[in-house]
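Appendix B. Extra example for self-study. Work through it before the problem class; the solution is given directly after the inputs so you can check yourself.
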Amino acid sequence: MFQRLNGPQTLGNGRGFWIGALAVFAVAVAFPAVADPYDVGNFAYFLIWIFMALGLCLMWGYGGMLSFGQTFFFGLGGYGYGVIEINIGAAHGGSLAALVLAVSVAALAAAILGYFMIYGRIGGVFFGIVTLSTTLALAAFVGQTAGPEWTVGTARLNGFNGMQGMSSLQLPWFGRDIDLEESALYYFLLVLLAATYVGLRLLVNSRFGNVLVAIREDPQRAELLGYDVRRYQLVTFVIGSLLAGLSGALYTAWGQFITPSSIGLPAAAMPIVWVAFAGRSDLTATFVGTFVLLFAFQTITIYSEQSALVLMGLLLVATVLFAPRGLMVGVGQSLARYSARRGG
Amino acid sequence: MAALLEIRALSRTFGGLFAVSDVDLDVNPGEIHCLIGPNGAGKSTLFKLVMGTYTPTHGSIRFDGEDITQMTPFRRVNLGMSIKMQAPSVFRALPVWQNVHIALQRRVPRRLLAAEEGRLLDLLGLTAEAARPAGELSHGQQQWLEIGMALALQPKLLLLDEPTAGLSPEETFRTGELVKRLAQAGMTVMVVEHDMDFVRQIATRVTVLHLGKIFAEGSVEAIVADPAVAEIYLGTPHANADS
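Solution. Structure tokens for the complete assembly:
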């Protein structure tokens, strides 16, 4: 099992790396005991976005498919959670069912959209254009649902005023449900994210992952080795998009609120910035880089939201110009070289 | 004996131009069938039609008793075909060992994979280069790596499009010996080649293509002695160039 976590598709394969990773995890577990609840809630908020960044990393960095559609699936997951939760209620595992169903909706949409793109041989830049158009279409649609006629069951979409009234996640427990807020939500997200990270490491270092990077390098050669290239691409697209749906559903559950601006153009650019900056070719780099950026972005936003956006743009340009493989990947590779020299 | 590959009335046009025109060809089990012809004769196009990267305008292809005319390339591979293409195409950014690994992993169970990988790298003479990105290998080494990846699938029919392009005479000879060993072990091989010495070294049967059509077919000796074949090569001073 441990061996299968490691391989050529990931940086950080040694014992030193995993000891470090466990240490970071331990610090994260201890964090709520020492930090104030506001910061814990904030960190939980950061963790929510990392799912969709990891999904994009899988599709783009490993599979060579640049999708601008992460926010589309985020929106489906987010609105999906709201609509379903409001209609079925949170009790007796209702909100968890809403989470699972919302993510399933996103996965199903990804399977349909992905099928038509991938089997219709839409590749390269057109893949980006189609996914971006889909995102903008959803944002435009939800934006015009302000009227009272736009309801699904008892859930009102409410246009740009935002949908509200859904409850947070409730974990069914013996006798009494646990309300997943503050520390409880933080732990829930931490465990879910750690499991996702480990699962993706297993995936990219498996036979599937080998084929995936082969397809990224040369799809024709991969097909001529007997691999059903388009099926691999479709599965990858569904997994990557599903993680965006998960981010969306968790986001709505976290804030009990979602608006179309979570789906629009500036939102759609963010995952690309995070993953490009961090280094799309590696899951760990994406994880760490996304967290750092979210933290920095929020810190700057406190002073000025405009300058935070401009800074993100500059960062993307600088990354493309000076570190096209991503800053965190560069740091990771330097660390790997350093530890190799030390004989570690 | 039933042919392993049966090509019937096969044509492919590109904007009205016949690249391959009404070709009938049988490739029998165990033979090394060389396809020669001047530039633009349609040799590579014919290979692509057999492999499925092009679809024919007309005609049919059967492989091992099955009609594969409309089949996608990866299904043909899974029936027992594999190809080394004309331009070396390896996974350039990936290490050499991983190239081999990806080619092997479909067929070889996990516990045997490392051993098979080592054996194949050894056969290719690439053990010392295993950790380097495949794109950093010399042209000849990349050719060998790609042949090795095609072999890793243990195909019934191996297609080699100009396997000796860019190789030294010594490497060319070694490639020929490898192909002969494979055929003795029961593999059927189809080769597109310009180097007539190489064709003499390996071919059990030769087909000459000219302007998309079959021009002549027979043993190496018969083809070399055929004055009409010599004639179509005249006026093409760069017989070693690309087709």
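Self-check: The two ends of chain A are 21 Å apart (CA to CA). If your reasoning did not lead you there, revisit section 3.
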